[in-house]
Amino acid sequence: MRLRARLLCLITAALLPAFAVQIDFEREARQAREAAQREEALRLVRLVAADLESVVEGARQFLSAIANLDAVATGDAEACGRTLAGLSRDVPRYTVFSVLDAAGTIDCSVVREAVGWDLSHTALVQRAQASGEFTIGNYAVGLATRKHSLHVALPLKASRHGRDGMVVAALDLAWLAQRLAEVPLPPGGSAVVVDRNGTILGRWPDPERFLGTPASFQDLGSNDVRVDATTGIDGVRRIYAFGPLGGRTPGLQVGIGIDPAAAEAALARANRRGLLLIVLSGIAALLLASFAARRFLEQPVEALVTAMERWRAGDRTVRALADPHLRGLRARTEFGRIAAAFDQATAAVEAREAALRESEARFRQIAEALDDALVIVEPRRRRLLYASPAFARLFSLAGDPLQHRAEAFLDAVHPEDRATVRGLISHAPDQPFDAEYRVLRPDGAVRRVRHRRFPVQGSATGRVVGLITDVTEEREAAERQALLAREVDHRAKNVLTVVQSILRLTKADSPRAFTQAVEGRVAALARAHQLLSRSRWGGADLIELLREEFAPYAAGAKERTRGARRFLLQGPPLHLRPEAVQPIAMVVHELATNSAKHGALSLPGGTVRVTWEVDARLPDESPWLRLRWEEAGGPRVAAAPTRFGFGSRVVSTTVERQLGGEVRYDWDIDGLRCRIAVPIERLMSPPEEEPEALRDRPVSLSGRHGILDAPAEAADPAERCRAAVG
After folding, report:
1. In which band, very low, low, confident or very high, does the pLDDT at 675 lie, cut at 50, 70 and 90?
2. Domain count within the chain
3. Are residues 593 and 717 in the same domain?
4. Which pLDDT tens digit goes with each residue over 473-499?
5. Range of the structural domain that residue 720 is part of
6. How many CB atoms neighbour CB 276 within 10 A?
7. Where does a domain end: 445, 469, 493?
8. The model scores a pTM over 0.90
9. Which end of the chain is more exposed for a tag (fewer CB within 10 A), N or C?
């Protein structure tokens, strides 16, 4: 609907209250007029009833006067007839005067032929005799005069009138009709008088037409005045007021009818004039509104709409105030303010679009540079709005990810996790989640990812952002860290247990000797842990372990021997597992400590040779490590010791119980010969568990603390781990 049509409808709607007021005014006027007509009918009924009561009262008094005449009282029929005839001439409203005897027979009458007629059977005579009072009869047609009349009777009593009998008079109903014609009826009104039987005695207008016919009113015997809208005997609907005459002689009813149509004609003319004025005013208002709407509303609105459509079509240079229909509008007018606001809005939108394009470019640069997969989804429409390149790489999606359905990545989810992931993405858009699941790559590799989803604030379509991070290395590192922590905890407990054992079992002749013994053993444990710490608890090389344990003795020996070789280490590369580093360190420490106290290391020229090899006792057995400890240049050994100290028990217990190996001591005259054999699986990790960086790596021996390196270029593998200590 056009704006002009809307405005015309608005004006029409504004005119409707005027029509409603006019209609309501007409309704109230009609009600007021009807009430006035009812009041007027009641007033006229009371007026006519009062007038007829005076007529009836005059008839009673007139009959009473006749009853007191001598001609009537004496019973002289001739004199009585002349007297009644004279009265009939003087009072023309009465057509007949008669005097009846006590038996109801006419004694004298204006009509001589009626003398001797027996009227005792009539209702009037019977009612008058029964009541002994003045009585009004009903509608009747005179037997002698043949005129329509209403008879009244006054009984005679001998005590008052000198005789018994009755005086009867016939009131001419034509005179009554003339009397009703004098009633001030409104146009279309009617007046009617009926007897107790409902027969019309008189009516105006049309007095002769309805005389003597039954009336159409109900409840004629009621003594109350009634007002009702009903249809009269002439077929015209009027407002009728109907009531009795009252007084001492009941029997007559008076009705006044007022025709509302006659009164409504003038009101209808006034209403038509009012409605015509309203319609003409409405037409004029509509014409003016149509012109004003076109000039002041439609043209500015069309100009604004045209500017908006050009803006929507992509014309960013359009401005509303440039249109001639809007250019002249003042800034304080509504359309002027709208046009100015539109121009400001277009400028602001253009600036925001530029900022948005720049922001989107930055977003794409950041999203494409991220290793994490970034997606924007509308879950309700199951649409994938954006997917970073990392998303396609992580889930192995071919082509443009936006061409795939929103759940396309589910095909790459590990089958055991698909149900869980499908339940997560089916959550309501306003419900974020943070979950981890596995992704199965085409090459069979399993990657663990962390999927975080959160709603876009202010999104009317329920968009959500998903950030998917490959946490495989992070989780593996965490697992390794947890494993390392458990290993450290386990090692720490073992160290504390060993330290407790050292403190409890170490014996010495003096506190200083006890302190030295304990410090040396704890230091050996510390050096073993230092090696493990450097390799992140991945184990240690046997040659490195021997160097660390011999370092304290080589430092002091260097000054005393001035370059003489104290230690010689020779054997193939061997990487010890973490569980074997501490036991081997304790064994070497106890052997070195024993040599420093009692063996070759106790003298400046003494030397220690340590060699090892890996072989199998039988072809079908697992290989063993065979380590030889040989001392020379120390005190000469006269015989094997008869008692073993704590250190010897530590060596035996460690090798045999902890490592499952064997220990054998040979006390040669030049020094101790100790042979240790341990299953290789108790010392080394399986090849698949050995760190790749340590496999097939040549041993490098540093020369610090007096330990000399063997030539790294030696062709003989046995020579690669040979070292001399001076």
Report:
1. very high
2. 2
3. yes
4. 888 888 877 777 777 666 666 666 666
5. 539-725
6. 10
7. 469
8. no
9. N
